[in-house]
Amino acid sequence: MREEILRLTGEHVVLVLIAMSFAAAIGIPLGITLVRWEGGRRWVLGFASVMQTVPSLALFGFLIPLPFVGGIGKRTAIVALVLYALLPILRNTLTGILGVDAAVRESAVAMGMTRWQVLCDVELPLASRTILAGIRVATVTTVGTATIAAAIGAGGLGVLIFRGLASVNAQQILAGAAPAAVLALLADGALGWIERRVSPY
Fold it and tell me: How far apart are CA 4 and CA 11, in angstroms?
C-alpha cells in the first residue's frame, strides 16, 4: 500500500505541475494583455468565471468527446485543470498591474522607459505579490480538483479515494485524501513563502 500511495502521489504532483505550468503560461500573458485591452476584459474574465463554476465531472464529460483535447486519460484532465486555474491567475495579474500607482508609472515614462521596460521593470515587480497570490490560490484548488481526475483515468490520489468509495473502505479513502490534503498545505506554505520573499514589503 505504501508503494502505491507514493506512486499515486507522484502522479498527482506531476498532474498539478503540468496543469499549473500551462495555466500560468496562458494566464499571466493574457492578464497583461487585458490591462490594455479593456474591451476584452469582460469576455475573457466571463469565460474563465463560467469554466470555474461548471462542476468538474460535468466539465470532464464535455471535454471527453472533443477531438485533440478529449478522450480518457491525463490529457483531458490537464485541459480541465488549466481551465479551472485560469480565473485567479488572470484576475490577480490584471488587479496587480492596474493597482500600480499611476505616479510611479508616469515617473518611469518621464525617465525615458519604453512601454515594455515599464512593464518588465516597474509594473510586474510591483504586481508580483498579487500575481503570486493568484497562482497560490489556483495551485491549492488544482491539488484538490486533481483528485476527481481519477474518474477519467488520469491517475493520482483520487484513484484511492474512488476505490475506497466503491468498496466502502474508509482506510483507502483516507489513504488518498490525507496525502492530497498534505500536498495542498505544502503548496500553500511554499508559495506563501515565495510570495513573501519576492515582495517582503
Answer: 10
User: What's the chain's average pLDDT?
Assistant: 86
Q: How far, CA to CA in Å, does 63 sit from each of 54, 71, 74, 189? A: 12, 8, 12, 32
Q: 184 vs 117, which has greater pLDDT?
A: 184
**Threshold 0.85, pTM exceeds:** yes
